[in-house]
């Protein structure tokens, strides 16, 4: 690796110049899918149309409206699981008879967790309240809240709001329902707001391509999984953190990523791609500010629980260490089709799955090493979104757990990394459709459900689709002339201090050919001077 000056000696790069409304990438002209969809309303936008001058309907507002419609449909998709009926004792209860959550494919973790995490008890507090699971049985175990701190507190606050609502409803001032139904609706409202914020952040991050946020708004994965769990909170914080980075505010980016890591761990992984790119561009001081702020934010949120409720705080880490392979994981696919029980043999003996944890961790680290090499050796410095997508996709593919809603993590990153509409919608549709065989697999063959092999077949197709996206992204990294984002006349919309910065470190690798490298992207090559401003 070549030596380089420190950050203070890095070349001065002019401030980013935002593209004007007339320089936007118009999907009805550039995307065949968007062009075909526009035909019922007049076809692609005309050559002399006044772009960006409507008094109200901006691309962002259109995207948010579409997101509201998609979230409404998503809520109706889960509504079958919050229907009530009157039992033989005259009491109202949820109608989950005859496998309704699986037959209607409306299952949501939010509903059973209200009772399972003891949120229905107004006197409980996450990480302090303990209960005994499987009491009186050999597998009896003390349990606490099983989620990271901010996710646990989010559930607790919604439970408190539920208790307050039911008290007021008892006086007749508010409509009443089962507490779990009220809890689900309150939670869904905040999760919907989080996804709307994700759409907003993507639209603001995709400089010159605000219409790409429509893919986030109408993603089939949102229709299925917006309210399956609490993952829109983490996508919101990850997307806004990257937006802050693109605005050259590393401390704000670190704050948001630290909060995101306190919700789900995956926003923490985004620091890895930023490290490689900042190392290559000589921007380590900026990365250090973001990383230290991320670590400090996570510590401030978690430290009180680590000190005063340590056993409850460790529950999340204990369960993740001791749990076996998820039905959606590649390890389960291998075990099923080969008949090898090595990954779950330790669990059968009541031991933590050491082999599974080791293999999963080693494969992820190997993938990260490969991605780091790409980031440091590619002929043109990769865009931030490209490496971030590769890292999160590698984690999901190699992890022993791929809960279906985890696919939401990839949606904003995929749109920013690879905004090819037909390709992304095809992958999202495949990924969303995995939900149907999963539900009927859980229903059981005895109840006319699907055999496990059929479900795992769809898992393989989903994984192959994600791998295909990774291959296309790597190809665009090594052939930047094929990158449609850079083809719009920009370097890295999400780059912040990295945007149009000159390389000061680079591993030996294949040299880029000038005739195949876009003129605006050549600035990342060591022999080039800082790039010109946007047109």
TrEMBL record:
Region of interest: Disordered: 1-21, 509-535
Annotated compartments: Cell membrane
Start-end of Basic residues biased regions: 512-522
TM helices/strands, residue ranges: 62-86, 180-202, 214-245, 251-275, 287-309, 355-378, 423-442, 454-474
Major localization listed first in the record, in broad terms: membrane
MF annotations from Gene Ontology: hexosyltransferase activity
Keywords: Cell membrane, Membrane, Transferase, Transmembrane, Transmembrane helix
Mode of membrane association: Multi-pass membrane protein
InterPro entries hit by this protein: GT87, UCP010361
GO cellular component labels: plasma membrane
Family affiliation: Belongs to the glycosyltransferase 87 family.
Protein name per UniProt: Uncharacterized membrane protein
């Amino acid at each position: 690796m070549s030596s380089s000056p420190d950050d203070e000696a890095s070349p001065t790069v002019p401030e980013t110049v935002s593209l004007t409304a007339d320089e936007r990438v118009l999907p009805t002209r550039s995307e065949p899918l968007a062009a075909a969809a526009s035909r019922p309303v007049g076809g692609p936008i005309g050559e002399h149309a006044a772009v960006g001058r409507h008094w109200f309907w901006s691309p962002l507002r259109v995207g948010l409206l579409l997101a509201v419609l998609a979230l409404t449909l998503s809520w109706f998709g889960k509504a079958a699981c919050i229907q009530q009926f009157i039992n033989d004792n005259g009491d109202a209860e949820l109608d989950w008879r005859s496998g309704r959550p699986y037959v209607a494919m409306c299952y949501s973790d939010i509903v059973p967790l209200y009772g399972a995490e003891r949120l229905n008890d107004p006197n409980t507090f996450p990480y302090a309240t303990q209960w005994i699971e499987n009491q009186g049985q050999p597998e009896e175990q003390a349990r606490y809240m099983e989620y990271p701190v901010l996710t646990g507190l989010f559930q607790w606050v919604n439970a408190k709001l539920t208790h307050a609502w039911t008290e007021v409803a008892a006086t007749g001032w508010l409509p009443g329902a089962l507490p779990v139904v009220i809890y689900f609706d309150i939670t869904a409202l905040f999760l919907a707001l989080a996804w709307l914020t994700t759409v907003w952040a993507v639209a603001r991050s995709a400089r010159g391509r605000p219409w790409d946020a429509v893919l986030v708004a109408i993603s089939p994965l949102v229709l299925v999984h917006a309210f399956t769990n609490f993952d829109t909170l983490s996508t919101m914080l990850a997307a806004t953190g990257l937006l802050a980075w693109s605005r050259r505010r590393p401390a704000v980016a670190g704050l948001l990523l630290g909060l995101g890591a306190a919700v789900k761990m995956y926003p923490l992984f985004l620091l890895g791609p930023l490290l490689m790119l900042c190392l290559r561009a000589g921007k380590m001081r900026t990365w250090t500010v973001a990383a230290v702020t991320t670590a400090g934010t996570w510590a401030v949120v978690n430290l009180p629980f680590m000190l005063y409720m340590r056993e409850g705080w460790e529950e999340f880490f204990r369960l993740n260490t001791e749990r076996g392979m998820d039905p959606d994981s590649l390890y389960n696919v291998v075990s099923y089709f080969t008949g090898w029980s090595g990954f779950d043999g330790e669990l059968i003996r009541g031991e933590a799955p050491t082999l599974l944890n080791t293999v999963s961790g080693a494969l992820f680290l190997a993938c990260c090493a490969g991605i780091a090499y790409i980031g440091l050796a590619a002929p043109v410095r990769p865009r931030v979104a490209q490496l971030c997508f590769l890292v999160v996709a590698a984690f999901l593919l190699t992890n022993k757990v791929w809960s279906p809603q985890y696919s939401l993590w990839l949606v904003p990153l995929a749109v920013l990394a690879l905004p090819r509409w037909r390709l992304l919608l095809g992958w999202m549709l495949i990924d969303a459709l995995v939900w149907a065989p999963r539900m009927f697999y859980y229903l059981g063959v005895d109840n006319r459900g699907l055999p496990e092999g059929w479900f795992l077949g769809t898992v393989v197709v989903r994984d192959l689709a994600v791998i295909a996206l990774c291959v296309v992204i790597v190809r665009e990294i090594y052939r930047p002339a094929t990158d449609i984002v850079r083809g719009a006349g920009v370097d890295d919309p999400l780059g912040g201090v990295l945007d149009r910065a000159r390389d000061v470190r680079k591993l030996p690798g294949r040299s880029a050919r000038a005739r195949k490298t876009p003129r605006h992207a050549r600035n990342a090559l060591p022999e080039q001077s800082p790039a010109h401003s946007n047109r």
